[in-house]
Amino acid sequence: MIRKQTVSVIKDLLKKNNLSTKQNIENLNKNEILHLECDICKRNIDYKITIFIDKRYRNSPKCQYCKFKTNLKNSMIEKYGREPYTYLEELVDYETPIKIQCKDCRSEMVLSPRTMLATFRYPEGKHPCKVCAYERNYNKNNIDDLKEKLIQHFGKINYDFVDISEYKSFYSRKNKLKLKCKKCNHTFEITNVSGLIGDHHYCPSCGFRTHDIRPYQERLDDIHNETIIALEEYVSLKQPIKHKCTVCGYGEDGSWISPPQYRLSGRGCPQCSKNISRSKGEKEVEKFIKTFYTGEIVLNSRTILDNKQEIDIYIPALNIGIEYCGLYWHNEKHKGKKYHKIKYNQAKMQNIRLIQVFEDEWIHKKEIVQDKIKHIMGYNTGERIYARKCIIKEVEPDIKKLFLNNNHIQGNSASSINLGLFYNDILISVMTFSKRRIAMSSKKQMQNNMSYELARFASIKDKVILGGFGKLISYFKKNYSDIATEIITYADLRWSTESNIYEKIGFEKYNETNPNYFYVSRNDGTKKLHRYNFRKQAIKEKFPEIYDANLTEFAMMDKTSYYRIFDAGNLSYILKV
Fold first, then answer.
1. Which structural domains are found in the chain, ordered by start?
2. Taking the model in full, what pTM does it have?
């Protein structure tokens, strides 16, 4: 039997927490179960009497479902200032998707409460409704907004708007806007109007986006660091004029006559090896490093590597080299198949950490590349978060996809197991696993159907997550050992070294692969495409006019507008579960 004072405490707690019972509390002892019913949701709840007796747990006896709904409501109000959804199905928990209706656009969708609270991809206060997001991004602008953007960017509008009937929005790529250039009276149509907001005036006739209206000598100074002087007046890009090199003196006698377009494309003095042309991307990488690093930086040196290969950016104090690899100039025809592998091996022999950044990574994943460079150089000053303060949960595919696209240099990939590391209910790291990929496995390896590949690991940018990788691996080993006997993964040698996180937590290196190759379209030379998209069957579907079953993939693809680029290969690792 329990004391009368305790009975009174229990009754007060039940009344306070909207709970009731049909049992006679006075006749129970402290080891018995108290069967309760929530007065709000009518769910049945069982608690031991000891929970009410122990002062440490007296606030615990509550309806967890009602507590969950209250917390969800409070979180919604905190993030969005209101509850933006009507629940068409009963809430279950944070992870279970239910049917809901947006109060703004009345559209119905299926989302989990966790996704409803996922705001890392939306503007502050905006909820994750796809219809509202589309309206917010694509249907909010009209032609006045475009004019306002042009005035803000250039100080005036250089176009007459001839036909705006098919204009949709500034962000849409399905516009059809007819303009007339005020400078040359050329009339043209444009679909991607964001191209109008560039570095310079856009016009197919008088001013492409890359057109620079500055004086020719000023542009030369900017590209060649004041090492080339024009001795004659600039006429046009193709009209040859005399030049002089201030480094070696070549052209002083008027013998160096060359079209300005060659000098503006980056070609330096033909007689001076020190005057090396530098791409725009390489200059941007250098400029970025100088925003946080004040030490010595050596540029375009052929004296560091013993085989005389050039390193674009070298930091002597850290023994780190950075290469910016333009996809066209570093393709198979210009550099061969093993250029990046040979350079990596040479740098490794000289104890130099070589980072090889491909052009498309810098263009499309610039923030991720910058974060990786700062981390490798030891200058990541973001918030430090310890994994022991975090919890692990499985994340939904759509959340995983968005997180990886925002935080992993290769973006999303197919996976069957998606683990997330949460800190204060915020997703800070994602690790995904999948069955072994055919493209990455030998026939012998594919025989083990309990072999899983660690496909992706990424942490949120501008944060330092300490111990996150090891904690996620340990979680996988503990919870998935019934379906997995080993974990396979690969480290890209353009970014990794043999002394990496894999070996520190127990992975064993079992192979170093040959360079992998990708395809790049000449029509859009800013994106690598995986070779898996150009197997023989795929070639037959995409290019039936050149398909020949007797030819190899390489032979057929050489007849198309695609070229190949090779990387530095991968390190292969295995971990027994």
1. 4-62 (no CATH), 65-138 (no CATH), 143-196 (no CATH), 216-264 (no CATH), 383-484 (3.40.630.30)
2. 0.55
